[in-house]
């Protein structure tokens, strides 16, 4: 579905307005933006608007997924409009309104193909979730922590590659994941920070002091915290210790019950300020499909009971997670409220991507990126992207 931008009135909802949970709210969308917000049962004049009765469901800011590889049978590495439409349509149906096309460790020409395809995709009207740019996950990662990345394509940090890619596709690279302990990483991190690109630690064997040095150079994020990184030890806090203890680092979290134990999730949200945790899916092409055999960056993946693992070695290989499921999982396994979890799915990634004045919260004048979920967060009935209804679950 791709309904043209129009005027909408969403009423009868609980909503996260700013940082507050509000009962019986109404929100008006006009000209792609949030035009009016009323609470306490007040109703604005419809004035020709299409009225949606939320039936007591939750209206949330649209989810922003900074780390997603694919979905519904397609991968961003496919580097085609058809694949990108399939991915953005699938995730929009589960509440994602903006995302980063995430690569895997691959040959330079394959990475360049994704950059080119993403830049071209963004130049035209996007019918579903908005593609904000590219997250380069690798190839500058640790051979000791490849996870589901192809070790044959791991490279030392190459500032010349990053500069060339950024010059060829300006504004397209939004995040780059690397192992900060590798020689040459500090120069890459400084370049990224100076150019408004999120520098993130991931697939890394970095010691605590090495992470801290990287933060001083401009590193500001940790990729899928706890996964594929040096663990916490009481005499060497490692990468995880630095992420938990340094509030300059934003911590990505895959909340699917497989990547991170609920107790570790609770530890993370107790250790980090609420505005420093970012929910991601790390979803691969199998998301939205059944169990079976799949491919991730040229590696064979088996999905069983919704869990994706490399056929060789058994490492977790991304996920089949959606953002609405991540939100529900954190709500079910922590004491956090809806507004706190909503921030992790929307406002926090918006700020990291320099979009806090555009989207990420429900406020008058911001983009109408909105998700209407049922009361139990088990599904999404409507998704709006900049005022366009891009998903509507038909009722039987």
Q: How are the elements arranged and paired?
A:
Layout: E1 8-17, E2 20-30, E3 33-38, E4 50-53, E5 58-61, E6 63-68, E7 70-71, E8 74-75, H1 81-92, E9 96-102, H2 108-123, E10 130-137, H3 159-168, E11 173-178, H4 185-194, E12 198-201, H5 208-217, E13 221-222, H6 238-245, E14 250-254, H7 262-271, E15 277-280, E16 292-296, E17 299-304, E18 307-310, H8 323-333, H9 338-345, H10 347-352, E19 370-373, E20 380-385, E21 388-392
Quick overview of this protein structure:
This is N-acetylglucosamine-6-phosphate deacetylase. This protein is an alpha/beta fold. It has 10 helices and 21 strands.
Question: Would you tell me which CATH topology of the largest domain applies?
Answer: TIM Barrel
- The CATH H-level superfamily of the largest domain is Metal-dependent hydrolases
Structural domain count: 2
Distance between the termini: 18 Å
Strand content: 25-35%
Oligomer, anyone?
single chain
**pLDDT < 50 runs, ≥5 residues:** none
Give the number of helices: 10
Q: Specify Rg, calculated over alpha carbons.
A: 20 Å
Structural class: alpha/beta
How many runs of DSSP E, i.e. beta strands?
21
What's the CATH architecture of the largest domain?
Alpha-Beta Barrel
Largest sheet: 8 strands, mixed
């Amino acid at each position: 579905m791709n309904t043209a931008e129009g005027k909408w009135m969403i009423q009868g909802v609980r909503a996260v307005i700013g940082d507050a949970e509000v009962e019986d709210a109404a929100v008006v969308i006009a000209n792609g933006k949030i035009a009016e917000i009323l609470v306490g049962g007040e109703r604005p004049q419809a004035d020709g608007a299409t009225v949606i009765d939320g039936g007591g469901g939750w209206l949330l800011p649209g989810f922003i997924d900074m780390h997603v590889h694919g979905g519904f049978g397609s991968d961003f590495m496919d580097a085609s409009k058809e694949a990108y439409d399939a991915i953005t349509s699938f995730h929009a149906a589960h509440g994602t309104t903006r995302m980063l096309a995430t690569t895997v460790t691959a040959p330079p020409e394959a990475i360049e193909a994704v950059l080119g395809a993403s830049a071209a995709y963004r130049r035209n009207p996007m019918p579903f979730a908005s593609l904000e740019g590219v997250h380069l996950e690798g190839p500058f990662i640790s051979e000791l922590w490849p996870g589901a990345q192809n070790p044959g394509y791991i490279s030392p940090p190459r500032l010349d590659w990053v500069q060339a890619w950024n010059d060829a596709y300006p504004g397209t690279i939004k995040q780059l994941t690397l192992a900060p302990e590798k020689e040459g990483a500090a120069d890459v991190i400084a370049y990224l920070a100076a150019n408004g690109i999120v520098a993130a630690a991931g697939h890394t064997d970095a010691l605590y002091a090495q992470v801290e040095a990287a933060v001083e150079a401009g590193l500001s994020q940790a990729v899928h915290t706890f996964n594929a990184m040096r663990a916490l030890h009481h005499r060497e806090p490692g990468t995880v210790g630095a992420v938990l203890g340094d509030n300059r680092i934003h911590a990505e979290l895959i909340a699917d019950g497989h990547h991170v134990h609920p107790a570790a999730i609770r530890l993370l949200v107790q250790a980090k300020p609420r505005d420093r945790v970012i929910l991601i899916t790390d979803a691969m092409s199998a998301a939205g499909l059944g169990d079976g055999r799949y491919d991730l960056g040229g590696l064979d993946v088996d999905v069983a009971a919704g869990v994706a693992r490399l056929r060789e070695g058994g490492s977790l290989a991304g996920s089949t997670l959606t953002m609405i499921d991540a939100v529900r999982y954190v709500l079910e396994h922590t004491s956090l409220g809806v507004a706190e979890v909503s921030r992790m799915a929307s406002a926090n990634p918006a700020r990291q991507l320099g979009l806090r004045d555009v989207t990420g919260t429900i406020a008058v004048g911001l983009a109408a990126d909105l998700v209407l979920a049922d009361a139990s967060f088990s599904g999404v009935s409507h998704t709006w992207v900049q005022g366009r209804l891009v998903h509507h679950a038909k009722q039987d």
